[in-house]
Amino acid sequence: MACARIDCDVLVVGAGPAGGSAAFETASKGLDVVILEKRRQVGLPVRCAEYIPSQLVREVNLPAHIKIQKIEAMQAHMPDGEVVTTRSPGFIIDRDQFDKYLVQRATSKGARLFLETKAVSYDGRTVLARIRGRALRISPKIIIGADGPLSTIGSWIKSTNREFIQAAQYVMRLREKKTHTQVYFSQDIPGGYGWVFPKGDVANVGIGVDPGLGKRPKAALDSFVSRLVGEGVVEPEVLKKTGGLIPSGGLLKLCRKNIALAGDAGGLVHPITGAGIASAVSSGKLAGGFAWRAIAEDDIRLLAEYELECSEFFFDIFAAARAKKTLLKEYWQRGTHDLCEALKWGWVAFREYYK
Is pLDDT above 70 for 167? Predict the structure, then answer.
């Protein structure tokens, strides 16, 4: 069987928020765009707590049906029982519909989507992909890697995530509806935190742990859930299970020649909070914009300005967070008082964090 061949201006690998945003930005400017997604459906399975800030809703003009619940505040439950409430306006979203919406915007502008298609290798001119076992050769002018924490595209430019938080999450029924998100800090969840993010009658209940601190994600999650059931926060039945890796090492090198990384693939995740949806959308949009400029002006060197733009906006924020995360490591095995004092400069809800 002959190998299918495609030429295009921009190849976007990954159909998450970064990939969908990059594809829309380039396709809407008239470029020939191809999107590869290794999963059978865009957006599934969901591996996300599904909170986004209010400004992102305005930026992407999000339809009402994707916004499941409005959020005004976040409660941080400290190890000593103190509860700190921080204003945190945003929404809990239907994440799979969010991803689908971003990709549908791109395909409505002419981007071509290939599902169950995995990028395998690149020889400097042609990407070899596999679509349901068949070979597909794609010759793009620019490649945007938006293929997640363990990025294949990142490996092509020797820029990959090395530090991770391991996350595990259940969907569970709430005993009472909530209007705020909750995060929990405990020695039982070392290097991260637990969360309860409400979605009407149910909630995303999860944990993220630093694998270097010796706690297995499932054990930490089951212990956390037992606490929540005992406190009357959730019902004991688990409706869904998911999990995955969250990059926590900060911003990577994002560009080399005609390849750019966006979203999780480029380490565009806050090392302490694990928040990455907004930065994925922003970086995808930026990558797409600079890809268009590079092609329009026939100067691939312009793509490197994407990395400069991202670094200017994200590098200092993520580098400071990573440094604080590293310093916090020694406190997870200490007593409650020491951990609480450390969290005051190590968690974003406290004023001391920004000093």
Answer: yes
